[in-house]
């Protein structure tokens, strides 16, 4: 999380440093180039003054030697040219070689021979490879007899500019490094309670209501948030515990009176005649008492299953190894066939209450309610690779699409199953437990019926994959 915070802060700091550094870098480059131009301008001005004296007196040997020494010392060819452009003094070969690559030279020479001080060539920016051409007229006004021209290679100047730019870049990196060095631990400290809250929420979503956040670390605002979170979880856990305790206690307390009532009603059977109208009332009362006992058993089983707090990893092979033989025996007794096609090595998150109990309920529904001939259990990893899909399909009656949404509600039963043993809690409880483990229980069309009249019933469970240890 703090990485994302740095991703936001560092680009802003880079933009700030760039906004300050780019104008400063341009100013540094312009100053270096300007200093170079002023130096060359001073040099040609001095040589122009000497050339005017040398040409008027006819004594040019000293100037020739000085121009040659200047070239040897700085590597810059300096030439004195006449009005026709002929080199009168200076290193002629070096000057002509440098002049061949300078297209701005004729314009500058023309302006200098006309008695004006020309502007330097316009391509002498630090990112351009052209040379700096500077000219100075020899003489004044109508008495101009020539010009002094220098052609300066700016590679050293550009090198100095690059060095200065590198220094500025290094200085600009210092605040960025300092920002990262300070922001990393600070953001980790600030966001640690948030990460702990996220981890706690994840554990809570898996059914563990005992998790609490650390309310002693981090900024004051996050400590208050953690305290509020813990207070909320205390209230939620207490409410859930009271709810489960009520269901368990109520079903337990009702069991004994209901058993006594059933015994009392059944004790009346010897006193009833076969043709007596009371026999029908007696049978109805016994059936209702049995249904109420099954309901109490289901409520107690639900309370026990939901009391298990957390989901845990499990091998699907281990779950099936304890169940498949019993399923085969039950289906064989009912005259049905069980087919199990599950690849080995599937590891998934087991819901609270146990994956085996959920599969038992789905198989029981297929045996009791569908009237199927074939019950099929399959499993595979989804295309995304992050979930395992377990499907229990049959080729029996099935239920309509409109009834599937209601089938996952507690105590709902299809109209045609009202006289079949059951409470209407099984699928609803299984759906809640699977959802609490991060999965989903959905109802679909099952296998095709043998008579071709449609499809049977399918309950598909998807649960998160757990990577191998």
TrEMBL record:
Superkingdom of the organism of origin: Bacteria
Stretches assigned to the HAMP domain: 188-241
Top-level class of the enzyme under EC nomenclature: transferase
Principal localisation: membrane
SUPFAM superfamilies: ATPase domain of HSP90 chaperone/DNA topoisomerase II/histidine kinase, HAMP domain-like, Homodimeric domain of signal transducing histidine kinase
EC number: 2.7.13.3
Annotated catalysed reactions: ATP + protein L-histidine = ADP + protein N-phospho-L-histidine
Gene Ontology molecular function: any one: kinase activity
Coiled-coil positions: none
Cellular compartment(s): Cell membrane
Gene3D superfamilies documented for this protein: 1.10.287.130, 6.10.340.10, Histidine kinase-like ATPase, C-terminal domain (3.30.565.10)
Keyword Transmembrane helix: yes
Domain Histidine kinase: 249-467
Entry keyword annotation includes DNA-binding: no
InterPro entries cross-referenced by the UniProt entry: HAMP_dom (IPR003660), HATPase_C_sf (IPR036890), HATPase_dom (IPR003594), His_kinase_dom (IPR005467), HisK_dim/P_dom (IPR003661), HisK_dim/P_sf (IPR036097), Sig_transdc_His_kin-like_C (IPR004358), TCS_sensor_his_kinase (IPR050428)
Keywords for the protein's UniProt record, in alphabetical order: Kinase, Membrane, Phosphoprotein, Transferase, Transmembrane, Transmembrane helix, Two-component regulatory system
UniProt cross-references to Pfam families, sorted A to Z: HAMP (PF00672), HATPase_c (PF02518), HisKA (PF00512)
Bilayer-crossing regions: 165-191
Protein name: histidine kinase
